[in-house]
Q: What sequence folds into this?
C-alpha cells in the first residue's frame, strides 16, 4: 500500500516510476494504491521487501503487509451498487500486500 504525493511534475514522475517498477516485479493492482504479489513463503517475500525498500521514492510512504492464503481468501468485496459482482481474488500460499 502506498501514498505518494503527486502535486509537482517531479512527484508525478516518481509515482509513475514506482508504479512501473511494481508491475515489472510482478505486483498486481488490487485497487488504487494497493498492489499485491503472491509468494510461496515469507523468505521469498523478503526478496520483494528488499526490492521495495530500494524503490521507495524520497517523499511519501509505502506499507508492506504479509497476509496468509487463508486471510486473503477470506477477503470480502463490499460494493455500494447492486448488480456489481464480487471478485474471486485467488488461492495461493502467501500474499504480500
A:
Amino acid at each position: 500500500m502506498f501514498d505518494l504525493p503527486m502535486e509537482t511534475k517531479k512527484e508525478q514522475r516518481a509515482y509513475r516510476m514506482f508504479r512501473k517498477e511494481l508491475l515489472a516485479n510482478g505486483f498486481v493492482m488490487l485497487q488504487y494504491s494497493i498492489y499485491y504479489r503472491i509468494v510461496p513463503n515469507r523468505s521469498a517475500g523478503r526478496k520483494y521487501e528488499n526490492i521495495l525498500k530500494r524503490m521507495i521514492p524520497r517523499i511519501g510512504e509505502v506499507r508492506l503487509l504479509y497476509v496468509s492464503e487463508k486471510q486473503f481468501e477470506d477477503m470480502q468485496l463490499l460494493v455500494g451498487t447492486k448488480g456489481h459482482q464480487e471478485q474471486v481474488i485467488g488461492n495461493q500460499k502467501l500474499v504480500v500486500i
